[in-house]
Design a protein that fits this description.
There is one protein chain. With 639 residues, this protein is α+β, with helices and mostly antiparallel strands. It is built from 19 helices and 33 strands. The relative contact order is 0.12. The N terminus is likely disordered. Bound molecules: zinc ion (ZN). Zinc ion (ZN) binds next to loops.
Amino acid sequence: MDVKTRIKRRLQIWVCALLATGCLLARAQNPSTRPILIAVDATHAAQKILHSELQIPASPGPLTLYYPKWLPADHSPDGPISNLAGLKFFSKGKELPWQQDDVDMYAFHLEVPAGADSIDIHLDFLLSAPGAAIDFSASGSSKLLILMWHEVLLYPAGSPADQITFEPTLRLPTGWKFNTALPISSRAGDTIKFAPVALDLLVDSPVQSGEFTKVISLTGDDKVLHEIDVVADDAWALEISQELIDKYKRLVREAGALYQSRHYRDYHFLLTLSDNTIGLGQEHHESSDDRVPERTLVDPSKRLLAAGLFPHEFTHSWNGQFRRPVGLATPDFQQPMKGELLWVYEGLTTYLGTVLTARSGLWTPAETREYLATVASALDHRAGRRWRSLQNTSNAAQILYFAPSEWSSYRRTTDFYAESVLIWLEADVTIRKQTQGRRSLDDFCRAFLGGPSDGPTVKTYTFDELISELTAITPFDWRTFFRDRLQSVSSHAPLGGITGAGWRLVYNDEPNVLIAADQDASGKGDFTASIGLVAKADGSIEDSVPGMAASQAGLSPYMKIIGVNGNQFSVDDLKRAIQASKSNAAPITIISSNTGSMETHAIPYHDGLRSPHLQRVDEERDYLNDILKPLTSSAEGTR
Ligand SMILES: [Zn+2]
C-alpha cells in the first residue's frame, strides 16, 4: 500500500496473488471457461460515480460471487466494499434475489435459474475525496480518474484468479485520454476494448485517464518501453524539467544494471499530480500508481521528499511482484494473507529504492545520508520497540497501516519499511566485508530477483529459501543475523549498518535537510530527538515519546499546544524555545488545551535542538559511498 499507500513522508514509507506453490507460476494461457465481460462506464467520474456491467458465465444452481477483499499491493483486507452501491443481478432480463453473506461481507449468494448459462450484474462504485484516513476510493477529480478494476467487479468463487479471464471495456468522459499497461484490443471514440486478461493481472493494471495528460519516454538502448504517463488537474503541472527526466532515465538504466532482468513486457510509471486524490504509491508488475500533490515536481521540498517514490515502486516489479513471500501469494483476493516476510517485500524494497534514488541522482549522497540519519533517529526513539518487535510490526501490518499517526512511537507503525533499510544496509556491508569487497547485495539481487525476462510471473519464497539464497552469495549465519534483529525488543535501533559502513549517527543543532523539507511541506515540527515531540502546524500534538521530556511533563498526543514561553504557539516559536533552552535556566513553559481544559506544562529541558546526521568515522572504509555509487556511467544509453 505501498500506501501503501499512504505516504509517510519523513520515513519515506510507501505507503503497497497467486498460487503458493513455491515454483515459477506461468500465466494462464488457455482458460477453460468463457470469459467474464465487464463494461465500465466512467462518463460520470466527475460526479464521483462509476457504473459497471458484468456478464458472468454460470450454471443453474447456487452461485457465490466475491468482491475483492485482500488486495495484493495493500497486504490488507481493505477492499472498499462500503462504496459499492446499486447492486442488482439479472438472468435474461429478469431481476434475481440475492443475499450478502451474514459473516463474510465480501461474499454474495444467489440462485442461477434453470436454463440460464450466465447472469448479468449491474453495480456502481462511489468515488470519494481524500480525508484523514486512508481511502482508496479517493481516486478521481473533475479532470482525472485512476480506475482500479477491483473496485468495480465481482468474480465467481472456486477458481484461482489467474484462471478467470475477463474481457474489459471502458468508456471514458468525452475527450479524456488514458494510459495503462493493459494491452488494448480496439478503440472507438471514447470507448476502449482491452485484450482478454486474467483477473489477477486485470486487478494489477490500473487505468489512468484525464483531460490533461502527457507521455514521457524513458526507453533506453535496450528498446524495452518505459514511460512516465502523467495526468494532472491542470495543464501547467504536466511540464517536467529535462533534468528530472534524465534522472528517471538513469533510474531505468540503474535498475537494469542492478537486477539484470525485467519481469514486464513494458513499464508505465502512472504519475498523478493532484490534490484531489489520495496520496499513494502502489506497485504492480508492469506499472506503478504514483500519486502526489500537484506541486510536487516544482516545489523543492516536496520534490526532495518524493524523490524515492519511483525507485521504490519500480523495484517492486522485481521484489514483491516477481519474487513474493509465500504468505502473500494467495490464489484469489478472498484468502487471508500473512505479512511475516513484509520486512523483505517492503523492507528490502525500501533499502534498494533508497540505493537507486542515490544511484540515479534523484538524491545526492549527502541527501541520502540525511535520510538514513532521519530513519535511524526516528527508530532509535521508538518507545514501542521495548514491547513490539520489528517482526510483529510485519505480522500486524494489516492493523498498523490503518492506525493513526498519533502515538506512533509507543504503538510503533509499519516500521518494517524503514527499519529494514538499516538491517539490509548491514547485510550489504556484511557481504562486502566477508568477501573483501568481491561481492555485495547487488549480487544477491541479481540471483534472487533476476531470472528470465519473460513477462509478469510470480516466484514465491519462504524464509528458509531466502536464507539459503543469501548463503549461496556469502556463507554467514544469516538466520541468526535476521532473527536477532527481527525479534529484538531492545530500546535501540539496529545501527550496525551505519557504523559498519564507516559512519556514525550524531545530533547537533544544524537542521537535517529531510526534516526541514518535511516542515516546509507539511508545517509540522519534528522535535523527536530533543524533547520527544512532534507537533502539527496548528499545535496539535501528533506524537509524544514516552520517557522523554515532553511526555514526562504531561504532554500527550491529541492535546493542542496554545502557547510557548508566553507567546502564542507556532512551530517556529517552539523551535526557538528549544534552541534557547541551552542557555535558559527556566523550563520551557507550554500552555495546552486538553479536550477543552487549559493546562500548563513545564519541560525541564536544556539540551537545545538536536537534529540527526551521519558523521564520517575517518579510520573506517566508506562502504556507504561504495554502495551509493552508480553502476552505469552518466552518459545516455550506456546500458
Ligand atoms: Zn512498497
